[in-house]
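Q: My collaborator sent me two sequences in one message, no labels, and asked for predicted structures for both. Can we handle them in order? The first one she listed is below.
A: Yes, handling them in the order given. First sequence, followed by its structure tokens:
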Amino acid sequence: MGSYKLGDSSFYSLIDSYASSGDFWSIEKVFERMKRESRVFLERSFITVFKAYGKARLPEKAIDLFYRMVDEFQCKRTVKSFNSVLNLIIQAGLYNRAVEFYSSIMSAKDVSITPNVLSFNLIIKSFCKLGLVDRAVEILREMPAKNSAPDVFTYCTLMDGLCKQDRIGEAICLLDEMQTEGCFPSSVTFNVLLNGLCKKGDLARASNLVDNMFLKGCLPNEVTYNTLIHGLCLKGKLDKAVQLLNRMVDSNCVPNDVTYGTIINGLIKAGRAADGIRVLNFMEERGFPANQHIYSSVLNGLFKEEKYEEARGMWKEMLGRGCKPNEVVYGVFMDGLCQEGRSNEAEEILQEMTSNGIKPNAFIYSSLLRNFFRTRSSEKALLMWKDMENKGCAVNEFCYSVMLQGLCQEGKLEEATILWNDMLGRGFMPDTVSYSTLIHGHCNLGDVKKGLELFNEMLYRDSLCQPDVITYNILLDALCKEGSMARAINLLNNMMDRGCDPDLGTCNIFLKALREKFDPPQDGREFLDELVLRLFKRERTLGASKILELMLQKHLQPKPLTWEKAVQHLCKPRKVRASIDKCWNRLIC
């Protein structure tokens, strides 16, 4: 309006400003005015807008603007704007869309964009994320023909994709190839391969790779050490993991929460809670306060080892160190108190938790409910269940399963049935445990017919809710007790036809019935012998072996034919022959 005349730089500044605030409506208005005034559009401005679209998780808007650049705004597109859009699509996790966008631009006749190494790295990453590693390798092979040499990021991305498909040998071959091509590996390259080897448990090759790493002048960093320590813990080599931790400290490589947490978790899982606490104290001494995850792991280990006093001491120590427990730590501690029989203290902790503004989860309530039933306090369990409903606690199938099991064990089948119908009414799908629990409840009260109805209902459910050996044993025991041996045999046949092997409990149910329900009583030898043969015929060697062991324990000698089948299935001819030859050589010598 005055003497000042707008220049192109004013519009570029406006675009930058609106992009930083995510005001895309204003950006479009600026674009429209620039078109009317025949202003010059710069690719740099579009890249700024693309980044803003990526930050706002609007990749399709960026793609649309990219296609509009030439025809609508007369702005030439280069590989810079192409890579910007491709990158934000990948960052949004839309890998299929990234491949589609890349292919459409590369195949268009009127587009003269030559991909560079970044373009290839991005599309290789997309193929690897989609599990199409072979296609990613093809892209690698195409790069030299398009005057683009793979860099260390190209090889790292491909190695990671191959390792995730358990093709570690091919990934290591790429390491040799990249060095031949004059591309020197970095610590990240070795870490990718070490991670793959450690997850597979191949610690010998991982150790050789570390030696190779030193030869190439790549010093191990905290990621390297963390990867190796994790691999050692997975293989149960915890003492070596602790030694590596000490070596890490001596090498002036500072361990972090992940390092200490990995070792502590490994020690706890191995039943070495005391050693885990020593590492925790070592961690604290070096200025790394333990987090809630580590404390929950230590508390869980102490309670599993029945070191209740030490667990309560650790809880006080945690609070004294200023670590505020979250719902996971509260859950572990309350579950441990319930195991110890201190349900009153667990309820006090629950009140403390809610007063601190932390909402109890389904696991916490399930632990308390299970403890109420264990101590024959079903009324308290029902009151807590009502309180959970009033507070709007998000219950799940596991909570219902705990309630059903407790009510059925106390013979409160009517309440259990009401709860079952409530569960179905809320859209929860009962699992195998829930069905088995209710079937057991009906069978205990002599209502085998209702138990069989629930069993048939299970068979028509999805594959996640199918009867297991426990379900079958409940019904087989009920049928045998009422003398329905023919129906029990039919159910056993159904069990085997559906791929469920009878276990020792199944055998004992029939052995008891053969002794008590037949006159004269039978020892069950013929029955078990036939069962073993049928299992071997169906190539179910493990199930047959367990029954053979039971027969020997009960002095029920299998028939010669059964022994012959057992030897054929259990003994590999070459190994047997080698053992025989070894014995003869010893005798002759």
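Q: And the one she listed second?
A: Here it is, processed independently of the first:
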Amino acid sequence: MRTLHTRLHTELHAGLHGRWGIPAVSGLLIAGSAAITGLAGAGVAGDTVMALAAVVAGTPIALHAVRALLARVIGIDLLVAVASIGAVVIGQYWEAAAVTFLFAVGHALEQATLSRTRSALAELVAVAPDVAVVLRDGGQVEVAAAAVAMGETVLVKNGAKVPVDGEVLAGTGAVDQASITGESIPVDKAVGDQVFAGTVSRGGLLQVRATGVGADTTLARIIHRVEEAQDAKARTQRFMDRFSAWYTPAIIVLAVVAGVLTGDVVLALTLLVIGCPGAMVISIPVSIVAGIGRAAKDGILIKGGEYLEKSAKITAVAVDKTGTLTRGRPRLTDVVVLGPDADRAAVLGWAALAEAGSEHPLARPVLDAARSEGLPTDRLPEVTESIPGKGITATSGGHRLLVGNLALLTQFGVADDRGSGQVAHDLAVAGRTPMIVAVDGVVVGVVAVADEVRPDAAQMVGELRRAGVRKVVMLTGDAMPVAVAVGEATGVDEVRAGLLPQDKLDVVRELQAAGYVVAMVGDGVNDAPALAVADLGVAMGAAGSAVALETADIALMADNLLKLPEAIRLARRTVANMHQNIAVALATVSLLLLGVLVGGVTMAAGMLVHEVSVLVVILNAMRLLRSRTQSHTPAAAGAPVAFVRNNARRATEPARR
């Protein structure tokens, strides 16, 4: 019995001190006043209880108004406080109680529904793991997730949350990554794969080496960024804040003037209540919170309201080819022998030796192919020099090695007397990236690599057009023939080939000068200048990149091209929602003010309509939280493409970059 009494007391205390406590007490007092009046007739007792109801509901409002005034802010609370105090002074106890009670109820409903719009953030926090099973001293030890040390080995069993960011050391399994990337299907994991804290094992047993713990995990960074983004103000919101700063004092002046001219104090007080810009103040932030929250649930991290608004205005998208339209994992496809004393092993071996000292992405497929064919890849050249836009030169054992394009041969005075230029051109036309190999001033052959076009690249281009994007441009440092093959496969509007990082920046500026609002999609490294100057920088596959999470305006957590048009569609829905909310708020206030001036709208009725309009605005914003089924109609590949030669010499030659 004592336990039950204690629990009831605790729940009652929580209820009275929660968001619904004050409205509940005020409502009971209003009901009590009505009962007293009904039983005993109008009198001091009923008026006293009604005035007490106004005091209970109005005290927090008055306190908020005072705090706002101390901060030099004239807000909604001040209007309601002045109106309710004035109503009590002139004996309008019912009006005072009704206004403060409705305002308190409206505030509680706002808090309840606003917390719903932040549900995505709450869900992200909820998936944060609490415990981890760590291998220590030859045994399994359960510790707090935050207590795992970097480099420790963590066991992830079927059904368990992954407690850290890490790399799979042993085992296989399927992991549900929806909380991070928005992917609905579990992803198979094996040795060498990356896993993220907060994801859930759906089968198998994984041993994971911790590479990120506590606040350094991808999940923690996402939570931090979503929280910041939902609080960040859009340009429209900043305008509405400035508007409200002038609007509220104007309503006070209007009420005073109306009261002086008519001598009707009730009219003046009613104007104060009716003129509350509550729906206007909340119309923008509630849409932004809901829109950014919906995006986060779908694996799209938008950095704030400003970028959400920009996303809705995008009319051109510039897309880097390698790693975006293509998989970014090129493989060796051809080894063409041109030297009379050379063979396949010799050409590939020389190319691998030169590339062993290179950091370029095309070095990896050459080295991998050489290793798979049993050629040595552990030797390093004494000297390696990268020639941007041309290739690489290396020195090893007294031999000078060149791997690159015709421009590289010309720079070092190597004659193309064995038709390597034509071979390279034919390979490039076939959609491959050729590299001519020369040893000690003599061409020995050509190697070529190819990067597979993503199967959803053409669909992404079509979805962008359906989302309202007028132009899609592919940017690449590759040769024009290679770029043409990818452009035709994906259906982009325009191809710019043979570009250096500075050239990509110039293309973005050119599009902006033509009146386009440009989004640049890239990997954040070679594309950094273009990403910086674009109206919107978009990073793909950001779940595995802390840099992308920090620097991109929009980060697509999954390596999924279709998330880009999805982000633009969501942004446009959100901005349309903001405009709808503003229209509702302005129409409500205008009609109420007209109703007061013409006659017929009372203080209590006006407050009721006002609070209903606030709820309409919030409920309208909450529609953004619903997931929409996206179109999956394949876009037609091979659409007309404009091919622009940004650098005539590089564009007509096989290029490394």
